[in-house]
Amino acid sequence: MEGLISLKSSPGTSLRSFPSFNQPPNSFARRFSMDLPLRRSSFPAIRAQQPGTISPKEEEEEDALKVKEWEVGMFQNEVAASQGIRIRRRPPTGPPLHYVGPFEFRLQNDGNTPRDILEEIVWHKDTEVSQMKERKPLATLKKFIENAPPTRDFVGALKAAHSRTGLPGLIAEVKKASPSRGILREDFDPVEIARAYEKGGAACLSVLTDEKFFKCPLLCKEFVIDAWQIYYARIKGADAILLIAAVLPDLDIRYMVKICKMLGLAALVEVHDEREMDRVLGIEGIELIGINNRNLETFEVDISNTKKLLEGERGQLICQKDIIVVGESGLFTPDHVGYVQEAGVKAVLVGESIVKQSDPGKGITGLFGRDISL
Ligand SMILES: O=P(O)(O)OC[C@@H](O)[C@@H](O)c1c[nH]c2ccccc12
């Protein structure tokens, strides 16, 4: 699960490769040169002094574009905050590293220290995605998609499993580690684990999407902050993708859900509290809502969260809209599964309790209290 565990920074990365949001643009730096010193060779005005680089006009246009992008980036944080989203998409005043002339020094600014693990992941993801986008621009991904095989029906597989077994359809998660639990399995062979899940009766798999090996539809478990990641997941063989309401403002969710539809992907939109649920219920075209029992900011797990969010009017609205709800995280026993099913879920997303078993397929039987592969 790269998205969950790759929190390390990328040494040796030039700032030039992720200029748009992480670093204020050059003309800003000129205006506020004391506050926002930049690494010299990384920015257009300085590059232009070297022979064989872009023209002053191009440089000006590039600068103007970056100013706009930076402003939009900052504006996004404000929009998100107005929707109750605590996670800031980017450090408010640029990254903590600052450079002045030939001297480099580190400026640790309070505002630029992530407040919790989710924010740290999102800030890291922003850098990672900017770099990947440079290597594989959207136009390249689109060409691959034209030749990609069709997606498998993720929602259909969950519904079929539910009506076949009378139990929630299982999305079985392949993960080696998580930030809250550390390493879950030393002898980690993702392919073998996924095969065992498939044999054990899982309807779908949740995995960092890589090669296509299985018949079960795949959920790409990622921290999506940019539509580019959705295209990338599609060419890597995903059939569904996770969108986290604690990270994404409504407008992003609307836009990303549309992109998913266009690409034939299911979108699993994840919520953790009432406010997020209400936001998501106000968005048209959502088929799958995940209720995460784990708070991604504190790691606290409470399975009664699923019940709480499905009570009363919210539950009725979900029924009317024919939305499938997935109970996520912290499910270990048949009692847990029964409890969330009683609360109204038709599917569950389970990682730790089954991935840890020596035979993950048998782990599924233990989780449901009976063999669901038949
Ligand atoms: O291992 P568990 O407790 O069974 O949880 C699985 C899954 O719900 C969890 O990995 C998860 C759900 N949504 C997420 C978002 C980010 C990271 C992790 C998650």
UniProtKB/TrEMBL annotation:
Region described as Disordered: spans on this chain: 1-26
GO MF term (any one): indole-3-glycerol-phosphate synthase activity
Keywords recorded for this protein, A-Z: Amino-acid biosynthesis, Aromatic amino acid biosynthesis, Decarboxylase, Lyase, Tryptophan biosynthesis
EC number: 4.1.1.48
Domain of life: Eukaryota
Pathway(s) it belongs to: Amino-acid biosynthesis; L-tryptophan biosynthesis; L-tryptophan from chorismate: step 4/5
Amino-acid biosynthesis found in the keyword field: yes
GO terms classed as biological process: L-tryptophan biosynthetic process
Reactions catalysed: 1-(2-carboxyphenylamino)-1-deoxy-D-ribulose 5-phosphate + H(+) = (1S,2R)-1-C-(indol-3-yl)glycerol 3-phosphate + CO2 + H2O
Domain Indole-3-glycerol phosphate synthase per the UniProt entry, residue ranges: 118-364
Extent of Polar residues compositional bias: 7-26
Gene3D superfamilies associated with the record: Aldolase class I
InterPro entries found in the cross-reference section: Aldolase_TIM, Indole-3-glycerol_P_synth, Indole-3-glycerol_P_synth_dom, Indole-3-GlycerolPSynthase_CS, RibuloseP-bd_barrel
PANTHER family linked to this entry: INDOLE-3-GLYCEROL-PHOSPHATE SYNTHASE (PTHR22854:SF2), TRYPTOPHAN BIOSYNTHESIS PROTEIN (PTHR22854)
Protein name: indole-3-glycerol-phosphate synthase
